[in-house]
């Protein structure tokens, strides 16, 4: 499955998902999304909590944010300790999906935490963009968008 399907289908129908705090030791992940085209649609942000959920296109949490500046930050709180990965696309045409060409190549900006990129035939593996969130800690990530 291609990047478009993995990001787009993992987010279709999603509105902001608020996570309840998982106790005093809950962690936080702050993802700064860069190379945003301001005032051009919305940013669809997916948070995955493991390789299995990523492969199944079953996100742990998601947010839809305004593309208000060249950098926008998504904050996920109340996270249990573990490994998480962030995938983002900028929905510039407002169709709530990552637009792709006939070969599945994205036609809108997209990115993964840490700037991870996939190979010639699809998105990166979960391990390439996963981050460890410690119990009670805060992790920051960068997600540069590319076209």
Automatic annotation (TrEMBL):
List the InterPro entries hit by this protein, alphabetically. DUF2141
Q: Name one Pfam family in it.
A: DUF2141
Q: Where is the signal peptide?
A: 1-20
This chain belongs to the protein called: DUF2141 domain-containing protein
Record keywords: Signal
